[in-house]
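ok trying again, last paste got cut off:
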Amino acid sequence: MTFQSYFVLAIFIITIAGLIKYQQRPSLVFGITLLVLFATQMVSTEQVIKSISNQGLLTLILLMLCSIALEKTRLLRLVAMNVIRPSYKVTWMRLFGFTVLSSALLNNTAVVSTMLAPIRSNPHHSASKLLIPLSYAAILGGTLTLVGTSTNLIVNSLVLDANLPSLGFFDFTLVGLCLVVVCGITLRLFSYLLPDININSAIDESYFIEAKISPESSLVGKTVEKNGLRHLQSLFLVEIMRGDVLLKAVAPTEVLQANDKLIFSGDISKVSQLYLFDGLSIFAENSGLSIDNLREVVVRPESILIGNTLKSVGFRSLFDAAVVAIKRDGEKVSGKMGRLKIQPGDFLVLAVGEDFKSRRNIRKNFILLSDVELDSRLSGKKEWLAVVGFLTAIILAAVGIIPLFKAVLLLLGILLLTGCFSTNELLRRFPIDIWVIISSAIVLSYALKNSGVIDAFNLFITENSDAFSPLVALIAIYIITWLLTELVTNNAAAALVFPIAYGLATSIDVNPMAFIMAVAFGASASFISPYGYQTNLMVFNAGQYKLNDFIKIGVPVSIAYSITAVTMIVVVFGL
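nice, full thing came through this time. structure:
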């Protein structure tokens, strides 16, 4: 091998080491790799541009952006309401089935994100008994179709880059179905190993938001559970103020009454979910201000508010603002918002009027932090457009009427033109980290080819072909991909191993499709480590798990997955 070959191989090894050491910052590691390779002329300008504009990568980005509109509808929340049941067995089966089916068509990260709140706040079962099954079901569901997981789309982009025919929408389905059945049974059998953790909801660190039920609201006369108030995303109903009586322990069976004041705790950016319920108005709206323009502030020690209530000081007329939410570090806020006595250091989220910035008393009373971006919600025709449009685009691509890239690009344009989301929302939610990771990994694969590393590897395999039977080679590729997935990330593992797998299949003259599928399914086999797959990391934090919890349940699932995947790849695709 030449000096260039050794240099690129060293960069490859250093990149993997960096990903293992800095697991929380893979985009930084890959970004540095890209810059080094480009600066040392290991890749050309054309190859960098081609990597950044890779069709599979762009399709993934477009799908993730389009799914933002779907997250803003009631679809997933309404379905989630029907998952939790008093029986753990029934709940487990419903959760597994819904998550698998949803993840086959939708972004599985969005599915898990939607289900986190109803699982954490359910009154029947410990959340730690359900969150790991939720993530694993999302991973398994993602293996069913081309769009089920980002891994499959990235593998397809690399297939196209190798001048091979595009993978079909259902090419993964037969192997994926076997994995869903086998791993589903294994996961259910070993569910007794899941820990029973008393999850702290960190209410003291969350904003408190007050909303009032009008007499005409459809919420009146129904229970908290029936109204779906237990299934909001990152918002939790913690208290009800009924007249002068404060109900601190809100049961799911509590029947709501007219003029009840509901006290929520959670992420202020999710407050627009409350607009999905008719006749539910936020505290600030009583002052005649919209929550479209929000500012976060901290109350200064010398503020005239200290020791007074919002109602007594005439907050609206003083500052041309109204309080939407309040947070007090180290202490739980409770009761009616208007009657709370303000303390130094209180965090407030304010709905501000046109004169707010020009008031001279603002900086005397508050430390201004930042604007607050709200996650808006869709209703009516826009909600139907988002749901029907997304499903139509997927179906048209699945049956081969139009390419997936074209379908999601047209859908994104329609959603933008109809106001289902704004350009600001797209910029705020743009998955820049994923773009950097995948495009950099593709650049690295180009460098391996340019420097002759892949050719040297192929020559070595050819000279020692007797030691590499097709089955042994397939298993080796699967294991390498799986290890990288557990150690780094699924997308990075797929992009890094693909050129090696394709080169190996070519060298020993076997069906490359089997090796391509080994990379795709191996890169989705993240069950032991919470860091290899995004949904695992989400439930790891939400469920307050320990690493050992993932190892205990993940090892048997991973063994069942690996045996089934390799066996079915050989049966379905041949060698």
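cool. DSSP finds 23 helices and nine strands in the chain. Residues 105 and 147 are 6 Å apart (CA to CA).
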